[in-house]
Amino acid sequence: MSNNHINLRQVEIFRATMKFGTVTAAAAALGSSQPTITRELSRLEKHIGFPLFERRLQRLVPTAKALKLFEEVQASFIGLDRINGFIVRLRDASEEVLTVASLPAFAQTILPEAIARLNAAQPGLTLQISTVDPRNQSSVSGYNFDIGLIEDIYTQRDAESRVLWVFKLVAIMPSDHPLAQRDHLEPHDFEDINFISLGSQDPYRLSVERVFDMAETKRRMFLSSQSANSVCELVLKGLGVSIINPLTALSYEKHGLVLKRFLPAQDFVLSVLRPINRPVIASSDALLSHLSRICAEAHQTLVQKNLE
């Protein structure tokens, strides 16, 4: 048996034969001929020192070792297939690819509408959306987004950051809750009320905690969830009340969620990140314009509902 490593061409021939089931189909997929594929498979078997196929009734039947090898080859090709697929998308895109990284609170509220408006104006545009925190990336690990949507303010030097809009947190409850009859709510209104919090590290949970601590109000800290959407679902089930961002809250109003102004008012900041060392995508400015207008519309809705 040779000690030399097998080459990529041999791996491709083996993979194609396993994938398509016959030498003829493998040859067609690789743009080769049947005799060439047969000859190369025979050389591969001699090279590695064990048979990969049994010849039965003019057909190739994979051996047990061939099946195990194929699993490993497939795993190795996943990354290459993803790269090739991305290249195809880049080539087929009539204009450019805009990549957006967004916290779920925005990806599930204002971002879809902004993309719909952008697509209407630029139907040839290709977009990619990932619901991850853009702040978890850095210039060291490598940015993979053109626009990042985050809550709060970002002050690192590796990305340009600007505040897109400042909203106010709102109190939420089911329609049959006693607090639903109030015009607005203050900390003392939550005394001994079941309260559903955001995650322990959420910056807006911490700001709300400070308000209640200063008011010396004791709530029943019944549940907590990392997701504002999950909090809304729990509130709708009658499990408690909460204080969250108004964008997510508004999206649940049609399901029966009641929103109330909370005093003292607590800011909810929506910021945009743009990596400094990443090429600028022209359509990113258009998307930000749509996002800004949608935020203005949401703000107007909140004002009309006496929530800001």
| Strand percentage | 15-25%
In which order are the strands of the major sheet placed? 4-3-5-13-6
User: Which parts are unreliable, with pLDDT below 50 for 5 consecutive residues or more?
Assistant: none
User: Architecture of the largest domain in CATH?
Assistant: 3-Layer(aba) Sandwich
Q: What is the fourth-level CATH superfamily of the largest domain?
A: Periplasmic binding protein-like II
H/E topology pattern: HHHEEHEHHEEEEEEHEHEHEEH
Percentage of residues in helical conformation: 40-55%
| Overall 3D form | elongated
Number of folding domains? Answer: 3
By helix and strand content, what is the structural category?
Answer: alpha/beta
Give the terminus-to-terminus CA distance. 77 Å
- The radius of gyration is 28 Å
Query: What is the tally of beta strands?
Result: 13
For the record, the CATH class of the largest domain is Alpha Beta
Quote the CATH topology of the largest domain: D-Maltodextrin-Binding Protein, domain 2
Average of the residue pLDDT scores: 87
In this structure, how is the largest beta sheet organized? 5 strands, mixed
Task: Please report the number of helical segments.
Answer: 10
